[in-house]
């Protein structure tokens, strides 16, 4: 993998630029804002409000720096539900890169330190981050991912379809859809005609939700 550089985004938080793909890990309009809006507010918070679930299984496609995991851990810290978080990541980042993201400034100090302490363990096996939160980072390519678990929420955070179309085709989306429980929610930062058609054909109902800064709309899909 080529060396990746940090880039400052519009909300003052950093992202990584992947030169091989030609894209950043997050929105240039604000990495943290995007994470909180797309995955926490429109995904996790919505799901908890709708279901009152006390146990939530989250599957992330493209774990990367773990920004979405950190925002999840920060959101749940003063609530009572438990989270089993599994991240799929084909190309895990070194701990030193994670430590340099500056995401410590966006979450509670304990959330940050327990993440750094458990990151490498989570790449080997399920890490008990605290009594209500466990993390597993599955070092695998999306299409090789297998699990006996079914998930309540999918955070779909692949690079954009123009750069990695193979992550957004019917085969890839169908592979992920198999791991979603009925009533489970799939959220992603983008929305296109192809994505809507694919998700409908995979048995999901489709909603256009307001997008993060820089994007008018995003997709939330619920498995029927
Ligand atoms: C848009 S970035 C995700 C950003 C991440 N959620 C974060 O907060 O840092 C896309 C991620 O997908 C990973 N990736 C790319 N191709 C993949 C594949 N075929 N299978 C699994 N992960 C892949 C990349 O390494 C990268 O970490």
Descriptive account of the structure:
The chain has 224 residues and is an alpha/beta fold. It is 30% helix and 29% strand. It contains six helices and eleven strands. An eight-stranded mixed β-sheet has the order 6-7-5-4-8-9-11-10, with helices on both faces. The longest helix is centred in the N-terminal third of the chain and has 21 residues. It is globular. The termini are far apart. The model has no long low-confidence stretch (mean pLDDT 97). S-adenosylmethionine (SAM) binds next to helix 2 and strand 5.
Helices and strands, with pairings:
Elements: E1 5-8, E2 14-18, E3 23-24, H1 31-51, E4 55-61, H2 67-76, E5 82-89, H3 95-99, H4 109-122, E6 127-130, E7 133-139, E8 151-156, H5 170-177, E9 180-188, H6 193-201, E10 204-210, E11 217-223
Parallel strand pairs: 4-5, 4-8, 5-7, 8-9
Antiparallel strand pairs: 1-2, 2-3, 6-7, 9-11, 10-11
Helix pairs in contact: 1-2
The protein binds S-adenosylmethionine.
- The mean pLDDT is 97
**How many distinct beta strands?**
11
Please name the fourth-level CATH homologous superfamily: Vaccinia Virus protein VP39
Q: Which H/E pattern describes the elements?
A: EEEHEHEHHEEEHEHEE
Shape: globular
* Ligand kinds: S-adenosylmethionine
The biggest sheet, with number of strands, parallel, antiparallel or mixed sense and barrel status, is: 8 strands, mixed
Number of helices: 6
For the record, the CATH class is: Alpha Beta
């Amino acid at each position: 993998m080529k060396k990746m550089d940090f880039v400052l985004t519009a909300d003052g938080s950093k992202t990584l630029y992947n030169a091989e793909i030609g894209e950043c890990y997050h929105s240039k309009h604000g990495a943290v804002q995007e994470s909180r809006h797309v995955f926490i507010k429109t995904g996790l918070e919505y799901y908890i409000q709708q279901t009152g679930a006390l146990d939530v299984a989250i599957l992330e496609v493209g774990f990367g720096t773990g920004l979405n995991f950190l925002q999840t851990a920060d959101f749940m810290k003063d609530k009572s539900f438990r989270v089993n978080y599994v991240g799929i990541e084909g190309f895990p980042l070194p701990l030193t890169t994670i430590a340099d993201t500056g995401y410590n400034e966006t979450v509670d100090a304990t959330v940050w330190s327990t993440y750094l302490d458990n990151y490498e363990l989570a790449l080997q096996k399920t890490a008990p981050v605290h009594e209500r939160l466990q993390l597993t980072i599955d070092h695998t390519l999306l299409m090789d991912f297998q699990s006996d678990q079914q998930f309540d929420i999918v955070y779909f955070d692949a690079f954009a379809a123009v750069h990695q179309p193979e992550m957004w085709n019917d085969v890839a989306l169908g592979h992920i859809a198999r791991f979603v429980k009925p009533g489970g929610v799939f959220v992603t930062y983008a929305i296109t005609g192809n994505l809507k058609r694919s998700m409908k054909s995979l048995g999901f109902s489709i909603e256009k939700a307001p997008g993060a800064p820089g994007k008018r709309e995003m997709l939330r899909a619920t498995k029927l």
